[in-house]
Amino acid sequence: MAGSDRDLVIALRAELAGIDPARPCDREAEWAGLDVGERWRDATLARLAVRLSRHDGTALAVAGDPGDTGPGRAFDWPNRAEHCRMAWLRGRFLARGSLSVANGRTHLELVVAPDDAPTLAGWLAEAVADAGSASAPGWRIRRGRGVVTLKSAEAVQLLLRRMGAGASLLELETRQVARTLRGDLNRVINAESANLLRTVEAAGRQLDAIAALAADGRLSGESATVRAVAAARRETPEATLGELAERLTIHRSTVQRALDRIERLAIG
Predict the structure, then answer these.
(1) What's the pLDDT score for residue 251?
(2) Collapsing DSSP states into helix, strand and coil, what is residue 75?
(3) pTM for this one?
(4) Which residue among 136, 160, 171, 228 is least packed, with the fewest CB closer than 10 Å?
């Protein structure tokens, strides 16, 4: 990722880590999701774990060792409220997740135990169901660990919003919209440039053919329509077929057939 994209992801993670759940059940859920494992040296995660445990003296006992809180064991997803589910996912993302927004592509990953990957993928599918079927998460085993992925920008943004992201998510969405607009603009410009190039090349061939037919007298033997189209093309080399048709008050197809005939005669 570029430096600015990386800084944005860092800011987003910091914003999520700074959320202080008001409900005790949300604090317990986020702690259960905060599977820090060997990452206890991460200062942000360590501060978050301490803050969550201080709010409720029983939180550590309820959640147990964060290294032993995999999906389906310490968190009862089916029977928990939506806000608890999002708190759990927030903790899981902060401890075991990564986000990439390089080159306009959004890619979110959550690393879990291999047996937990399909379970977590199912939970994520529920969380982002509103983003459409095309945004369904996938999972695979990589280097002995389960990896759950979410590649739809819409689904990732929906998930981050539900987890509590605010200003940093807005900045992410703004950048992605700007990238999309630039991409669309570039495609339009490229298409117009290609069309213009084809028009210029065709006009050049047509002018050469008209000059050749006029030089040997064959142009004068053509129909009035062909001669009128040839004269219009000479006077306005840059005109499109539609503009020539409008000028001569005839159909575009008639202009096309007249110019095709002129080119065929010049070649023959």
Answers:
(1) 95
(2) coil
(3) 0.61
(4) 171
